[in-house]
Automatic annotation (TrEMBL):
Residues 5-130 form the Cytidyltransferase-like domain. It comes from [Clostridium] aminophilum. InterPro entries: Archaeal_FAD_synthase, Cyt_trans-like, Rossmann-like_a/b/a_fold. Pfam families: CTP_transf_like. One of its GO terms (molecular function) is nucleotidyltransferase activity. It comes from the Bacteria. The keyword GTP-binding does not apply. Keywords: Nucleotidyltransferase, Transferase. This is Glycerol-3-phosphate cytidylyltransferase.
Length: 134
């Protein structure tokens, strides 16, 4: 059974997140969603406007039938990835830069496949936050 891992904050849960999980299911029988720890977010981005606690976000994602397992992470790095049993890492098309290059190299070295998934056009948490603040 193949296990796929994707990660995010998932604070303003929306259709784009659900479609991400649906894309993940096409690659694997078991979908693991990593939810970023709110305390970690606040420690490194004190100005961040996080609506739901880590526990609330885990509860919401766990309630989805398409998701098999939810874990909490601080930041995406090899040390965090080593803690999770997965075969495939799903990155978004916007996950670019040194940090993502490092985890791609780690995945290659540890026999993990990396797939790039498309964003849902016209939907973004940052856009939702901006519209709500009006």
């Amino acid at each position: 059974m193949a296990k796929i891992l994707t990660f995010g904050v998932y604070d303003y849960f929306h259709l784009g997140h659900l479609r991400l999980f649906e894309q993940c299911r096409k690659y694997a029988d078991y979908v693991i969603v990593a939810v970023q720890n709110g305390e970690y977010i606040k420690a490194f981005k004190p100005e961040a406007d996080v609506l739901y606690s880590t526990e609330e976000r885990v509860e919401m994602i766990s309630a989805l039938r398409i998701v098999d397992e939810v874990v909490v992470y601080n930041t995406v790095c090899p040390a965090e990835l080593e803690k999770i049993d997965f075969d495939i890492l799903a990155l978004g098309e916007d996950h670019v830069g040194k940090r993502f290059d490092e985890i791609t190299v780690w995945c290659d070295a540890h026999g993990k496949k990396v797939v790039r998934l498309k964003r849902t056009p016209g939907i973004a948490s940052s856009q939702i936050k901006k519209e709500l603040k009006g």
